[in-house]
Amino acid sequence: APGPRSYTTLRDEAVKLFNSLQQLESERDPVPLMQGVLQTCLDLPPLVDEIYCQLVKQTTEQPAPGGQGDLHYWQLLTCMSCTFLPSPPVLRFLRFHLDRTENRFPASEMAKYACFIREALGKTKGRECVPSLEEILVLMQRQEMICTVHCPGAPACSVAISSHTTAEEVAQELVSRLGLSQSPNLFALYEQSRRREQPVGSATLLADVLTRFE
């Protein structure tokens, strides 16, 4: 379909993604390549299962388990788990793969990614945007992002958020921090740009808002 990116057939795009994954193994800066793969999956949802299966294959029986190339695949799998849910059959297969990895390589980096991915899959409901470059960087480290919120009459507040944190959760935390829990007023987050200012929906993921800023 016409759009900002031109695509060919699903089969051809799946081959292109496979080639991208092969390149990922030796990429010095994998973040832009990861974001490109995620964007293709967002634009072409039928490829989500395909990429999950390819990543499971690439993280199975690696010649150098825990090496840089192997960890790049686990890092992309982490970003996928915070962005898309696979279909039920692929999800069952993925969870088996995560359990197998933790059992075979306990206390390894791969096992830590597997644990993080399992927890993320329990929270992911789908994203409007792919993770920003900053979000991908922190997901690669299994960490949270720091979001700065400017409050009227108060200094800016820094809030740690994950890929699953909603605007309502951040607003509630700020209300508590500012001692406004007993206030009869309603509070919300606003998104401001040069052209407009608008409230952020309570169920909106803050990570999506940050991607739009990027």
From TrEMBL:
Residues 1-140 form the MyTH4 domain. Residues 143-214 form the Ras-associating domain. GO terms for biological process: signal transduction. Residues 145-214 form the FERM domain. InterPro entries: Actin_motor_Myosin (IPR051724), FERM_domain (IPR000299), MyTH4_dom (IPR000857), MyTH4_dom_sf (IPR038185), RA_dom (IPR000159). GO terms for cellular component: cytoskeleton. PROSITE patterns: FERM_3 (PS50057), MYTH4 (PS51016), RA (PS50200). This is PKHH3 protein. It comes from Platysteira castanea.
